[in-house]
Amino acid sequence: MDSNRFEQPPAGHDTAQLMEQILYEVKRVVVGQDRFLERVMVAILAQGHLLVEGVPGLAKTLTVKTLANTIRGDFKRIQFTPDLVPADLVGTRIYNQKTGDFSTSLGPVFTNLLLADEINRAPAKVQSALLEVMQERQVTIAGISHKVPSPFLVMATQNPIETEGTYPLPEAQVDRFMMKVLVDYPSDEEEFVIVQRVTGPAVAVAAVATTEQLAALQAECRCIYVDPSLVQYAVRLVSATRDPAKHGLDELARFITFGASPRATINLTEGARALAMLRGRSYALPEDMTDLIPDVLRHRLVLSYEALSEGFSADQIVGKIMARIPPPAKPLAHEKLAA
Hints:
Elements: H1 13-27, H2 34-45, E1 50-53, H3 60-70, E2 75-79, H4 86-90, E3 91-96, E4 101-106, E5 113-117, H5 124-136, E6 138-141, E7 144-147, E8 153-158, H6 171-174, E9 179-182, H7 188-199, H8 211-221, H9 228-242, E10 256-258, H10 262-278, H11 286-290, H12 293-297, E11 302-303, H13 305-309, H14 314-324
Parallel strand pairs: 1-8, 1-9, 2-5, 5-8
Antiparallel strand pairs: 3-4, 6-7, 10-11
Helix pairs in contact: 1-3, 2-10, 9-10
């Protein structure tokens, strides 16, 4: 039997060039935030969704809007407020008095890139309506299912400095987000460039790709090779969040009430694939996965009151687990044939 049949095709030059052009166009407008932009691209390629936490004014909306322009996709933004109802998101049936018929008016979730601003300001039923669309990628109105466009990415934001009048997302709903990304203030040098760009002439963003090309990139991402040892590494990490004592982390058991779900293991594997593809490789390396571990796990750990009282954060606990469970030895490119 010819073993070459099992080798995945390498990431093509055209693919790498296209992603480079998309990132270049976005960076012409957005200054800094390279890590955040990288996570947005990973979420798109891996067909996941992002939960972003950061103070106002850090270019979260601008990043997603600019990205939508570069891929000729639709972009919509919903400002979540306490008086929002599910129909404001997904749409509703409208009665036409002249004809006596009902017509369906689709809501703003029918887009390629959706920014759900301050998702924790909307009541639970509105949050549930959005999270259902994220999981099923369709909306049912009056018994008829309507699919959202592809590609489809939801980026929900939370403001960490103002919790008055908010409805925290339940753990089961937060689990549907692939990653939770923390966006920080820019450096002094970056802020200087930001002021120059905002106060200077407007930069026109060129559309360098189409939504069809992006769908093809998503399909290509599924072909990126992930070594079984990397998947086992992800399984051990996630298992350590559920049963720390089993992995020699007895001191962490009292700090974790609930660990991460199997979605975390899947997201780590898919994320490593997407990051490897962004970096121009047709196979994932351990660093592709380790770079994403805090983002994939931080929102999935339910900390005990003891952890909160002692000032422990989810990131600190994830750091201790990563220090205890080492990544596998770097798999070489030729090891793909052993799959």
